[in-house]
Specification:
There is one protein chain. The chain is of the alpha/beta class and 218 residues long. It has 7 helices and 9 strands, in the order ααβαβαββββαβαβαβ. Strands 3-4-5-2-1-6-7-9-8 form a 9-stranded mixed β-sheet, sandwiched between helices. It binds S-adenosylmethionine (SAM).
Length: 218
């Protein structure tokens, strides 16, 4: 999607992707990664997700990247966190204890802030890209992540012709074919989530699954 698409969504607060609670799949599967307290975790396309708070509560240092300034400011104000902001190259870096969010384009983010990262979490980031941008995103993510870093990826799959994305449908076959060159890929769970997604039910999407993957950067 073009940046203007997301800026418009945030300006009109049409942020149906944002959850008012921590993602239950993160709570269920993150502990399996066994990242040591103090480890750095990257959250690409982070929005103002409360999942950042969960990761920080596990004793991790979270580094996010988000395009929209208001989304970043809302993260800190909604969670009543004191924040300092510094310009770093093309990005604004918003920091509080244990959380730094680089506001700006992921494709323009320098690698240096992520050099010590050992974990990552992608929820509604891969599936936010239209098919023609998806491979480019995977390559960018792989470029930013140090070797051996370990993470969770949460995806949705459904018959794409039944609904316009985002979120876009990403199949297991696509992930295995396009992410395996960069990551060891293991599917941890796939669940039928149609009933919990009224937008999909209303549009008569016949099926909808949500999958969790464990990825290790090669
Ligand atoms: C579907 S939302 C998901 C947000 C978050 N991961 C969540 O689970 O709530 C995708 C987010 O990516 C941001 N975004 C889109 N393109 C971006 C880019 N090139 N660089 C950084 N962030 C971007 C959007 O502003 C939006 O907040």
């Amino acid at each position: 999607m073009q940046p203007s698409f997301w800026h418009d969504k945030w300006a009109s607060q049409q942020i149906g992707f944002h959850l008012d609670e921590v993602n239950s799949l993160l709570i269920d599967y993150w502990p399996q990664l066994k990242l040591a307290a103090g480890s750095q975790v990257f959250v690409p396309l982070c929005g103002k997700t409360l999942d950042i708070c969960y990761l920080a509560e596990q004793g991790l240092e979270v580094i996010g990247c988000e395009l929209n300034q208001s989304a970043v400011e809302q993260f800190f104000s909604d969670n009543e966190l004191p924040v300092e902001c510094q310009t770093q190259g093309e990005h604004e870096c918003y920091r509080t204890e244990q959380v730094s969010i680089y506001q700006g384009d992921l494709f323009r983010l320098p690698k240096e802030p992520l050099e010590a990262v050992s974990g990552f979490y992608d929820r509604a980031a891969l599936i936010a890209w239209p098919p023609e941008m998806r491979q480019q995103y995977v390559e960018r993510l792989a470029e930013l992540l140090p070797p051996k870093s370990i993470g969770l990826l949460i995806t949705l799959d459904y018959p794409q012709e039944a609904l316009n994305g985002p979120p876009f449908a990403v199949s297991d076959a696509w992930i295995q074919a396009h992410m395996s060159p960069y990551f060891e890929v293991e599917c941890l769970s796939t669940q039928d989530v149609l009933a919990q997604n009224p937008r999909f039910v209303k549009k008569q999407v016949p099926w909808l699954t949500e999958s969790v993957y464990r990825l290790v950067r090669r």
